[in-house]
Amino acid sequence: MTNIPVTTWSLEQTAPTDLLPAAAPEGDVRIVRSEVPSPEFSRFLYTAVGGDIRWTDRLGWSRARWVDHLDRAGVETWVAYERGTPAGYAELVPQDDGVVEIVHFGLLPAFRGRRIGGHLLAYGAARAWDLESRWPGIAATKRVWLHTCSLDGEHAMDNYRRRGFTLFDTRVEEEPEIATPGPWPGAHPA
């Protein structure tokens, strides 16, 4: 197996005023919180969004591990729908001392390039900033951060910067080159 260099960029917002809005996309696009933790739905989103960009770290998770992750206080999944069809999602995970990470964010391939991503990112970041209003006992958010890498979509970094995220760390590591897993084992996107 060969290795490839992968650059990972970490970006942050340190105040709610850092968040820059995005225009709402045309058509019937809605963003809804998935309030009932569902490992099946979360795994679907993870594989459908990340299957063509090599998201693999959660593919081996058992259903019990998904349940444990989703049942943690403050973990939220915000899903964008276009005309009732899931188009993408943002997963928020609170950390210590008022830090919230947007752990996963992205769109299913068929919905990319349609201005849904900027809208979803702005909405998801705003929900990270007001997370404590929905979760008694969670500290007020002082920082929102995320990471992207050179394997992600070509417009990811631009979208993050246009929403007011600023770079705070860059790392380059060798990683094994793996086949794109697709949304389920052995499937490859069209």
UniProtKB/TrEMBL annotation:
**Pfam families recorded:** Acetyltransf_1
Q: Which domain of life is it from?
A: Bacteria
Q: Which organism is it from?
A: Streptomyces doudnae
Q: What is this protein called?
A: GNAT family N-acetyltransferase
- Which stretches make up the N-acetyltransferase domain? 29-190
